[in-house]
Amino acid sequence: MMLSRIADSIFWIGRYMERADNTARILDVNYHMLLEQPPDTYKLRWDPLITITGERKRFYQKYDEASARTAFEFLGFSEDNPNSISQCIILARENARAIRDRISRELWEDINALYHKINKLRDAGEEDLALFCDAVKKGGHRFHGVCNATLPRDEGWHFLQTGCALERAEMTARILDVHYHQLLEGSEILNEARSHAWMAVLKSVAAYEFYKRQYTHIEPEKVAELMLLDSRHPRSVRFNLGIVQSSLYAISGSVPGTYGNEAERLTGRAHERLTYDSIDEIFSGGLHNYLQDLQETCRTIGAHVAETYLHYAVTA
Amino acid sequence: MSTAAQTHTGNQLLFSGYDPGSFYDELIAPNGLPRPCAAAMYDNLSNMPLDVFDERRKLADLSYLVQGITFTVYSDGRGTERLFPFDLVPRIIPRSEWDVIERGLAQRVKAINLYLQDIYGPQRVIKDKIIPRNLVYSCKHFRREMVGLNVPRNIYVHISGIDLVRDSRTGQYLVLEDNARSPSGISYVLENRLVMRRTFPRVFELAEVLPVDHYPAELVEILRSISPRPSDRPVIVLLTPGLYNSAYFEHCFLAQEMGIELVEGRDLVVVDDCVYMKTIHGLTRVDVIYRRVDDDFLDPLAFRADSLVGVPGLMNAYRAGNIALANAVGTGVADDKAIYAYVPKFIKYYLGEDPILHNVDTYLCSEPDQLSYVLEHLPELVVKAVGESGGYGMLMGPSSDKKTIEAFREKLIADPRNYIAQPVVPLSRCPAFDPAIGAMSPRHVDLRPYCLFNGEDVRIVPGGLTRVALQRGSLVVNSSQGGGSKDTWVLRSDE
Fold first, then answer.
1. What are the angstrom distances between the C-alpha of A155 and each of A6, A241, A245, B80, B414?
2. Least Cα separation, residue A109 to chain B (angstroms)
3. ipTM, 2 decimals?
4. pLDDT for B109-122, tens place per residue?
5. Which of A2, A3, A114 should we substitute to test contact with B (largest number of B Cβ atoms within 10 Å)?
6. Structural domains in chain B plus CATH codes
């Protein structure tokens, strides 16, 4: 038995932690890649980052230009950006605090410690970007480790999994979408730089080593194939929708191959497509549309999870 | 790093130069040597170099921070979280002293419960002229809705926290006030012990300290026993006002320790006079609510309509006997500070016994002759508002300037029923570490034991919360006034 409010908080702990982690990865990889590039590519390569996080409008209200400094400030710890890393961690911690009696003591202490650590770094300058991102990424790994080692596999666990996986699926789709767009349109980019950029994309989803073992050259289609359709990599969209699907089944008791609510139906359909679509088919139909559709599906699944379990109406 | 000065302070002994002074000291006898109960602790701590002690002190602080046992100060706009200061020197109570305290508290809690049962029932205590009707009915926390209502197993105060102080002049414990609504602080008792055991494992080995960690198990047993539905597994919840309540940590802690659901008002709904909680799979019936929400905010339909933390219809469900509440509604009519003056009479009246623990002398400003005495002696007295707690609405005569006293005088004259006055009790002291001088220094303390009443017996975890006024000379132990806490040890024997 689980209170809807508790399930809601657990779900959002998963989402916020994952959002913080992904944002740190994108920021970190980009920064390091650009250290090796001529300075005039700066603007071009910081701008997409802002787009990935879906906060373009808010960013350009505050800053004239996307640079390492402004992007770090905005995505790292700005209080004006509700999706900045430190805001995500604050919200994850608030949710954890609200349900600390329902999670393990270890998990609460871990999230709380991460908050204090990030809080100390909040006035960090550009030169501390790597340190900051590293703390967040390690915090993300610790978070998953502590969850894995201390949480019972009850309904709460499955809401956490749903939150994490849904966020990660959407993030991976968005990273791919934005970079693909930029890299194809920005024809002035040198081939060599382009290949560097794809490498950075792979690194931001921790898939570079895995890619290199399977493919020889960096090719956009192959990168997309891995990030979208791979059945084994823990950051691919297919992998994560698979987790969402099995967690939703565990919560409702639905049998695989059926669905008990709209969230399950949409997840099942999206997962099926990612299992049987080939990357050639996806490209010929237009990658951008495919990715837009996927992101929209992720958002709709989230809304249906909330409607089914978290915020349903009670008629007295 | 090792400058001469640091080496010197590193070797300084913690108790060197400690002077217990003219107040009663809980641990150190007037000759400067430890009392028998404190001998083992003293031997261990007095030989500990300052730098080792300081290191452990920082570790202890860190563990509170990591666990998030903090309270939030909103005044600076950033919502800074502060630690409730914890002093590492334990307050030690010899067994024979504790036995007296325990019997005295049990007696008091039983009498308070019988009084509540009487007041919301036949009101014999009024008819027999033990207490004036006016005084009872004018209590801010008297609840008309409770009159004639039977509560499960006749228990009104399942949980109470009775504040005790030791009078330095006589060495006797006195009751300073009763808290019969929802006293907080027990989580600090349990956490302090945990931290203490981790910080000074060796000291624990030597001193035989009675355990405290069975409190949640005893409380949940009582909650189970008042369920209105006969069932092996009644659904019990703890109702909290939410995340931003200053005792939120405690609510979480207790819910977790008892293995019960922590709920907010918005998680509950009343349908056909039954209480349900909203779960991911629909509504689940609730049997018992350990509520940490004040009466006023419990049910916007019955009490304050602007309450956002309550449950609409809860009082109807309570009156219908479909839900049990702990503590019962209306227990504030027992811990009103004017009613407090009558508790010794209740003990005599209901139990036929002489009070084991005495009250502090109390002047009721509602009585004209007592009021005129109070008005003449304001600079020597402590004046308290009767319905408040936590050190609010208080005048500390001896430490207040003329202007404050005069302003208070007007309030007193305007609404005498709202105030009582007491002489200033010279509270006992206990050594506490003073970081400013890097050594122990005596500080005033009080004691709040937590009493559980199961309808027959009163169970008290040995010790309770010792609050300490960390500022030199201060008699105010409230956390908002720079107070801290200590681990409280009751020893298996006297030494």
1. 10, 18, 14, 34, 58
2. 5
3. 0.80
4. 999 999 999 999 99
5. A3
6. 97-187+211-351 (3.40.50.11290), 361-423 (3.30.1490.270)
